[in-house]
């Protein structure tokens, strides 16, 4: 029985041959200067609170936004827990909005 080996290097999860290309992108060489910008995601989201439907309508799917307005689902959700979304008045809603 002969030893059969691939004639090309295996690809990584990103489709790059071998692991060198992906490794270079994921972990820069220690000699490179890498700057990290700190930000607070909660602050960014809080600053846009209430704009979700306008942004969704403008950039994604205006028909979905119109339908949610008609059925009264155009709420500003403040938090989520398990299968529930909670509006600004802490009223729970079963999360089935995405399908």
What is this structure's SSE topology?
Blueprint: H1 20-26, H2 41-47, H3 52-59, H4 62-70, E1 77-81, E2 84-87, E3 92-94
Antiparallel strand pairs: 1-2, 2-3
What does this structure look like?
There is one protein chain. The protein has 99 residues and is of the alpha+beta class. The chain has a domain at 48-99. The protein is 31% helix and 12% strand. The chain is built from 4 helices and 3 strands; from the N terminus they run H-H-H-H-E-E-E. It has helices spanning 20-26, 41-47, 52-59, 62-70, and strands at 77-81, 84-87, 92-94. A 3-stranded antiparallel sheet has the order 1-2-3, with no helix packed on it. The longest helix has 9 residues, at 62-70. The protein is elongated and about 55 Å long. The model has no long low-confidence stretch (mean pLDDT 76).
List the quaternary state of the chains.
Answer: single chain
Q: Which range best describes the helical content: under 10%, 10-25%, 25-40%, 40-55%, 55-70% or over 70%? A: 25-40%
- Unreliable segments (pLDDT under 50, ≥5 consecutive)? none
- Helix/strand/pairing class, anyone? alpha+beta
Shape: elongated
Count every helix, treating DSSP H or I runs of 4 or more residues as helices: 4
Compressed to H and E, one letter per element, the order equals HHHHEEE
In terms of DSSP E residues, the strand content is 5-15%
For the secondary structure, the number of strands is: 3
Provide a compact summary of the structure.
This protein is α+β, with helices and mostly antiparallel strands.
């Amino acid at each position: 029985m002969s030893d059969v080996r691939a004639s090309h290097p295996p690809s990584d999860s990103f489709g790059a041959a071998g692991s060198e290309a992906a490794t270079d992108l994921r972990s820069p060489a220690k000699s490179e200067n890498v700057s990290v910008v700190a930000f607070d995601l909660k602050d960014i989201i809080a600053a846009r609170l209430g704009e979700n439907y306008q942004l969704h309508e403008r950039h994604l799917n205006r028909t979905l936004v119109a339908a949610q307005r008609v059925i009264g689902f155009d709420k500003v959700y403040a938090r989520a827990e398990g299968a529930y979304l909670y509006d600004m008045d802490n009223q729970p809603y079963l999360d089935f909005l995405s399908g």
